[in-house]
Amino acid sequence: MKRNNAKHMCDFLDGTRLHRHFVGTSWRPLEKRTATTIIFMLLLLIFFVAALVSAGWIDAFIFSGAYFKKSITTSTPKRLEFPLQCTEGINVTQSCPRTYPTRPNPANPSRPSNLTCPSYFRWIHEDLRPWKETGITRDMIERARKIAHFRLLIVDGKAYIEKYSQSFQTRDMFTLWGILQLLRVYPGRLPDLELMFNCGDQPVIPSKDFRGPNASPPPLFRYCADEGSLDIVFPDWTFWGWVETNIKPWRSLLPGIKEGNKRTKWEDRVPYAYWKGNPNVARTRMDLLICNVSDKNDWNTRLYIQNWEQESKQGYKDSNLENQCKHR
Questions:
Q1: How far is Cα of residue 17 from the mean position of the Cα atoms in its chain?
Q2: What is the DSSP string of 213-242?
Q3: Which of 180 and 73 is assigned the larger pLDDT?
Q4: CB-side exposure of 38: number of CA atoms within 13 Å?
Q5: Is the dihedral of CA 33, 39, 43, 45 positive or negative?
Q6: Residues 6 or more apart whose Cβ sits within 8 Å of residue 56
Q7: The model's pTM
Q8: Torsion over CA: 209, 214, 218, 221 (sign)
Q9: N or C: which terminal CB in the chain sees fewer CB atoms within 10 Å?
Q10: For residues 108 and 275, what is the distance between their CA atoms, to the nearest angstrom?
Q11: Per-chain mean pLDDT for the chain
């Protein structure tokens, strides 16, 4: 919105506009000191405004007069997103369009280059600590094959997949779609790599089986890990949506939850802690159900078991996250 307004400002500074403003107007003569003070303050104001304009705090467009004729509109940068255009064929081998970029985009000068990683990035180093001294060998990778759903290779900015078994529902597809988004948004920036991936819920690399200086655990990526496992954590596939359970991608789901949060005031909500989900996927969830209300105890919690099979038959009418902001 910056515009060249040099002539306008020069005319203003050389006094022509000030002169035109005062011509034909009857004014009481001012004392010399008072006039000097007014001129000094006026020049100071002019230089102050000019400094704000040059610093970008005030848009020079305001001084052109068009500001009062046309409102200023601001636009947010469009978020890049590339649709998944791979078609399902009869053959096992599939390919995606070759029209996607593979070279780095020009650096954005408005983006600071001295950004630091958030503190939680340290967990990347923790997850890779078992291989810090020995490195990762070809034998380690191949031993993960029997428990992996697919192998991912990235070579020269392109992804290659070798599928070993069918994952639950479409977890593998949405996980791969997220990786493709990474390749498209940052073309040419990802190094060549190879990794094994498991799409299940439970960790499968127990740390107790790989102890001692000669331990060589297979590196396996998955969505979950705990203190007793060596699985390498990767972003959950539901970040991009979970179509089988009618859950939208987080980017479009979070605004809906924010709006749903406004429907019921805090003081009007049910005064209990609330949880609903499938307890059969984790021991900690089964333990959590012990804290549910009973004839003997009330822990101020209301815990519900989610039956996804039944919910799917009912059209997911009771699983919309936007409608569940009713508890404190």
A1: 52
A2: TT--PPP-EES---TTB-PEE---GGGG-B
A3: 180
A4: 7
A5: positive
A6: 2
A7: 0.64
A8: positive
A9: N
A10: 43
A11: 75
